[in-house]
Design goal:
The protein has 416 residues and is α+β, with helices and mostly antiparallel strands. Helix content is 50%, strand content 18%. The structure holds (R)-mevalonate (MEV).
């Protein structure tokens, strides 16, 4: 460790910025930038805090779920994501919107032990002590039970050489990771006192007891492009969906498109998007092969879409109550419960997927993408806000667009 790194974590944010500036010989402009974006809240949230790194937030309009229309705040840096979500949502709204099933919401607290001796004897013993383990878990977090939640079930599995005691925990409206970890650790401590070697006690992000399914239909006429009739687009979307079931190279990209929308809603609603990403990809590989999370079929003269994934989201807990922007986002969307948030989030994922597949099935992705990428390119070569749209328009007329072209166009506009 270099000298300047010693005790870095003990410094104030201002002192940290100064120490970095000196040690790394940063220009003053960098230190000023870090300082301009710093906040007291950020310093409360993370270690070695320097500044707040911001991302753009937009809103997808006209997302209809179970007959209700939502405005959905989305936080994402990729230019085409919000436009695509809104585009997919509007096409589905014309056929009545998304239908989200009401489903159970439980998290899994995993306590993994090494067998004390014979595995089947241990399993019988653990089964006999289910009530004690549930009580131990609930005693560690009594407020959860008072709210109608708490540890409800115990499932025993034998992955590899281990026994996994899976606690099924209802965390009510919360994200619940801390509560589940507290309960799992209490059960781990008790199992240790009973002679088990406990390997770990922690929430599992493979939230198979918090699955959310959404479905939708889209009329052929709402899929047509200037070059292709709606039925052909629908058939090609269904073919792309089959491909995503068969080929992991395509499934990964197909699912990335779904997660583009889902992550953006999760970030805007203060949820742990890494947890949901991990669970979604584990679920996509649940039968041993990684597959697309959604499916699209042509049925009865229309396109029918379906998406299922684990969505253990919360509307309280974590940093949700701390960040005023997160609270504002709940006011914009009007979402009040975790069930509603899961339904809306999954619907955005399916809307996003529809828009991506429709583009892929017809004109290809670049036509729409590039218009939005041109904006980023214009900004990256120094276009001022009042110049961005002129640069973008001129770039769209060129055959070949890169940074050099963007710089050239910007110079031309300034000369004009
Ligand atoms: C890009 O961010 C996402 C897509 O690649 C998704 C897809 O191919 O389905 C367009």
């Amino acid at each position: 460790m270099s000298d300047w790194q010693h005790g870095f974590y003990k410094l104030s944010p201002k002192e940290r910025r100064q120490r970095l500036t000196t040690a790394l010989k940063l220009p003053v402009s960098v230190t000023d930038l870090l300082s301009d974006h710093a906040s007291d809240l950020g310093n409360q949230l993370v270690e070695n805090y320097l500044t707040d790194y911001s991302l753009p937030e937009g809103v997808a309009l006209k997302l209809v779920v179970n007959g209700q229309e939502y405005q959905v705040p989305m936080v994402v840096e990729e230019p085409s994501v919000i436009a695509a979500a809104a585009n997919g949502a509007q096409r589905v709204a014309k056929s009545g919107g998304f239908t989200a099933k009401k489903q159970d919401r439980e998290l899994v607290g995993q306590v993994v032990v090494k067998p004390r001796g014979d595995v089947s004897t241990d399993l019988t013993w653990l089964k006999q002590h289910t009530t004690t383990m549930l009580k131990t878990a609930n005693d560690a977090h009594p407020s959860m039970q008072r709210r109608g939640g708490g540890a409800k079930s115990v499932r025993l599995r034998t992955p590899g050489d281990f026994i996994s005691v899976d606690l099924g925990i209802n965390v009510c409206q919360a994200m619940g990771a801390n509560s589940v970890n507290t309960m799992a650790e209490a059960v781990g401590k008790w199992l240790r006192s009973q002679g088990f070697n406990v390997l770990c006690a922690i929430l599992s992000n493979y939230a198979t007891a918090s699955l959310q399914t959404v479905t939708c239909t889209v009329a052929f006429r709402d899929l047509a492009t200037p070059q292709m009739v709606g039925q052909k687009v629908a058939e090609r979307i269904a073919a792309l969906s089959n491909l995503a079931q068969a080929d992991p190279y395509r499934s990964a990209t197909h699912n990335k498109g779904i997660m583009n929308g889902i992550d953006a809603v999760l970030i805007a609603s203060g949820n742990d998007w890494r947890a949901i990403e991990a669970g979604a990809h584990a679920y996509a590989a649940r039968d041993g092969q990684y597959r697309g999370l959604s499916s699209w079929q042509v049925k009865n003269g229309q396109l029918v879409g379906r998406l299922t994934l684990p969505l253990p989201v919360g509307v309280v807990g974590g940093s949700i109550g701390l960040n005023p922007l997160t609270r504002a986002n709940y006011q914009i969307s009007g979402i009040k419960t975790a069930e509603e948030l899961a339904a809306v989030t999954a619907s955005i994922g399916l809307a996003q997927n529809l828009a991506a597949l429709r583009a892929l099935a017809s004109t290809g992705i670049q036509a729409g993408h590039m218009k939005l990428q041109y904006r980023s390119l214009a900004i990256s070569v120094g276009a001022r806000p009042n110049e961005v749209s002129s640069v973008t328009k001129r770039l769209a007329m060129l055959d070949h667009v890169d940074r050099a072209a963007a710089r050239r166009v910007l110079d031309e506009i300034r000369k004009d």
